[in-house]
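Record 1 of the preview.
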Amino acid sequence: MNEKAKKYVDMFRKVKIVSAATVDESGVPHSRIINVMIAADEGMYIVTSKGKPFYKQLVNTGRVALSAMCPDCQSLKFTGKLKIVGKEWVDKVFEQNPGMNEVYPGDTRYILDAFLIYEGSGEWFDLLNYPISRETFSYGGAEEERSGFEISGACIGCGACQKVCPQKCISEGTPFQIAHEHCLHCGACMEACPVQAVCTR
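->
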């Protein structure tokens, strides 16, 4: 895992309490609050018990989406693949999260399985400062998320996009350029362009 991804994985662990989303067999989305139990070089570890729909959805799809809000108004999101790991990881989770012993005393902990989120991509998003800032990251072989807008060679240089940008992150050029690290992804530039030169990435 590279340093950038490690920074944000560690941030998920520091926040700890996150929203975890899955889909069921009918494609209906479900969300619940969980804890990121361990952050390691190979990924993030979570646990859940076999009796929960969450467990079944994780096993059936092998995927999970996480989101969290940091105390200073920074948000984190992540979509990844996961797999069940050995019971020794349940013990490691309890070592690093001793409060779990009150919920699952003694051997009752082994009704839980530990899952390693071994691959995925995410984004850090800071709304507190102007202009806003965002940064993507990934690990485990996943590609970094590529979203937002770009301006094609069809640009006529009229500046309509630049005038409507709420973050003032569009600069003149041939074509005009969007600073993706400060873009809100609002789409105002695309609506304002008279020649449809602004498109999704």
